[in-house]
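To whoever is covering the structure queue this week,

Two jobs came back overnight. Logging them here so there's a record in the thread.

Job A:
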Amino acid sequence: MLRSSEAKSFQGMTMKPTAYVFDAYGTLFDVHSAVRRHAGDLGPQGQQLSQIWRTKQLEYSWIASLSGSYRDFWELTKDALDYALLDAYWQLDCYPEVPTVLKTLKDSGARIAILSNGSHDMLGAAIRSAAIEPLFDAVFSADDVRCFKTDHRVYELVTTHWRCYPEAVSFQSSNRWDIAGATNFGFNTVWINRTKEPDEYPQHPPRLILPSLEGLLTTS
């Protein structure tokens, strides 16, 4: 990984990032679309079930990293919900603006990647299902370093692979804790706050806060 105290932060600079890296779940892919596919069977409790599923999935990843008992993200997902719904998680819908935003950024000459806690199998299935596979130059999985975000080793996958400074990377995530970790690592971060959540980590502020990925096309 290349890091330097002399390298200038991208914040406040006019040049564009050389790479755009996206969290997957909740940022590119709508994690609640899995439950919506079974809304008729689940009834009015479906949305609550979806929220609990996602919350527990994340909690399990944090505890696995803290305890040093790594298991891949699919195993954690299975633990977070009864197996009857799991197939839906392999075919999540992407948000409507995602294909256009990714294509426009890629056409501008920037490198495009995913950096996710998800395993390669999970991410590959979601990307193919959304028909956006050709838009990515790389897919980075926490599985490669056997720990989860916000461990620096996960973010370091990007800078090591591309031999770039963190400041050259614009990192987008809908998860505020992920933005805090990436900011601490040195990425220029964009919090995609789709649901107007409060800012719980003011000590690690994002460079930008946007309601969707579309804002990248006018602010990058």
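Job B:
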Amino acid sequence: MSEELNTLVKLQETDSMILFLTKKAEELPKEIQNLDKQAKDFDQNYENETKKLSQLEKKKREKERQIEELNDKIKKLREKTSQIKTNKEYQAILKEIDSFENDIKKEEENLLVILYEFDETKKRLAEVKSEIETQKKEIENKKNEINENIKEINQKIENLKQTRKKLIENLSSDIYQEYKELMKKHKGLAVVEVKNEICQGCFLHIPPQLYVEIKMNQFIHYCPQCGRILYFKQEVGKEQSEAQAG
């Protein structure tokens, strides 16, 4: 393969890798954003459970207050019985006391339901907190790994850019300009291999005579359809066979 064509192939390989790594480096921060969203969802879940516990605590205090008020009413009515003079008034007060006692039973049953739910929510909140702490540690570890990966990728890109700079020095300004225009036109793919008389850029057939010339890799040839620079990659087994035959 001619030195100039070989340089173009290496430049394309280098640029393709730079493009691939750059895209990867751009996608990784999105993974961090997703992890941050997960952490935020965990916090929201914990906050919801905390609010629920707070509401149950409020209901619990309200029920206890209602029961206490009913007990106070019963106490006052019982104190009042010593001042009653008629049986009719006494029976009326007993009926009222009985009504309040029934109300207390209902409120105590309601309180038991609230206490059960309160205990279950408190238990669940502790479990959620423990799970969140574990999940957040995992998220933080993943974020650290991603950030390290980003650093490594950026370093690789920087190394490839240095390699690229050296390769460009071996090309004429005209050829490099052509290469840049082709890169822009074909979205980062200016130099492509030819396989079985087919351009691997546009996947159209190459004329037989041109294919023969391309296989020699002595000069720069362009695809008649897409205009990309073409080269032929000799298989290792064939190279050895041809060498032995020669």
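Note for Job B: DSSP finds five helices and four strands in the chain.

Please reply-all if you pick these up so we don't duplicate work.
Q.
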